[in-house]
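Protocol step 4 of 5: obtain the predicted structure for the target chain.
Materials: sequence only (see below). No template structures provided, no constraints applied. The aim of this step is simply to have a reference model before the mutagenesis design in step 5. Sequence pasted as it appears in the construct record:
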Amino acid sequence: MAYDKVLEERIRVVVDRWKDLSAKRMFGGVCFLLKGNMMCGIWKDSLVVRVGLDGFQEALDAPHTRPFDVTGRPMVGWVMVGPRGVEKDKDLKAWLAKARAFVRTLPAKPGKETP
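Step 4 output (structure tokens):
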């Protein structure tokens, strides 16, 4: 299954400077992990961002979003942002910042702690 490689490059421009970040192929796309916790990714042509339970409804109220659901079982705390929702770099950066802010509240996965 193909995914939007241009979106991947746009994400990398923003996140490659962040510490404790890695990328992994998942869901037929790519996923970015912060300290071992999934933070965001791409599924087909949509940005997938982890916003947590507290930020979930606010994220769904934003234009061009829907729950992250590719299996018939939505992942609570995750939203998909359609291409129009990240056309502008400032919008992409804002979504990535939301995901980063939430994931930074999570404990690092074992072996992913910063020394």
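Step 4 remarks: The chain has a mean pLDDT of 93. Residues 66 and 80 are 5 Å apart (CA to CA).
Proceed to step 5.
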